[in-house]
């Protein structure tokens, strides 16, 4: 298979396992490119990509922008905070104005779940979802799986626990879809108030005891508590959360095996993981960041090759 089964990357739930394998094989190639002295390839010299961020983002936006520039695409950056959206312009009008400038692809982060799907039905451009509310964040899940594959050889059969604020996390949902699709076993762990009802329907199990979860897993993906999405308090205090669900070096050293620690960032050091864990050799957090550029290059390249046809 040499092309994706989809014309947009709206969520992991629309992909097949073959799509994921193709993205990873393409990312392998681009990873080699970004480690060369000259890190650019002319693949997308005739493609224009607009980055539309209606929500704050540093790492994801920079990662996409770097991926686009490494592929020699023309890039337009749009931040909603300083745009006509503040004056009441609708999403479709904003995008249509940008598309009238002959843009081929839109990378969009938006606070409303389903914004990317909505857009894909109304505008004639390839859409990449860079996070829609607490719904999906497909490229993060892809780079997480890619990092596990790089570290452990494959994702299939591996035991992954996702720890923390599952309820508000688009990373958790996309990761569950991606890991299950590739044949991994998945548990979620966190305070009961931060675990969505009926999550078992997605084929995952719930563990509320962090030590048991860590003893079970090969990989622990630590999520931050998303205070900005909480209108009420879901646990008594940050200190209490850290005591129950924070990972420190002593916890890891007491396990009878070495597990891999991941984090999508930004890290709240001292809350979900301590600095000595974040900076330890068990953590592949910086590998995730580097792999993010290669995986996003792969996604953009594969979608752009469908535009060119």
Describe the structure.
This protein is α/β, with parallel strands linked by helices and 309 residues long. The protein has two domains: 145 residues, Rossmann fold, CATH 3.40.50; 149 residues, Aspartate/ornithine carbamoyltransferase (Rossmann fold, 3-Layer(aba) Sandwich), CATH 3.40.50. Helix content is 39%, strand content 15%. The chain has eleven helices and nine strands. A five-stranded parallel β-sheet has the order 7-6-5-8-9. It starts with 16 loop residues before the first helix and ends with a helix. The model has no long low-confidence stretch (mean pLDDT 92).
Describe what is shown at a glance.
The protein is 39% helix and 15% strand. By secondary structure, it is an alpha/beta fold.
Features:
alpha/beta; Rossmann fold; 5-stranded parallel beta sheet; 4-stranded parallel beta sheet; 11 helices; globular
- What is the CATH H-level superfamily of the largest domain? Aspartate/ornithine carbamoyltransferase
Poorly predicted runs are none
> What is the top-level CATH class of the largest domain?
Alpha Beta
CATH topology of the largest domain: Rossmann fold
Question: Strand content of the residues, in percent?
Answer: 5-15%
H and E string? HEHEHEHEHEHEEHEHHEHH
For the biggest β-sheet, the strand order reads: 7-6-5-8-9
Topology:
Elements: H1 17-34, E1 48-53, H2 59-70, E2 74-79, H3 91-99, E3 105-110, H4 115-122, E4 126-132, H5 138-152, E5 159-163, H6 170-181, E6 185-189, E7 205-207, H7 210-216, E8 219-222, H8 238-245, H9 249-253, E9 260-262, H10 275-278, H11 285-308
Parallel strand pairs: 1-2, 1-3, 3-4, 5-6, 5-8, 6-7, 8-9
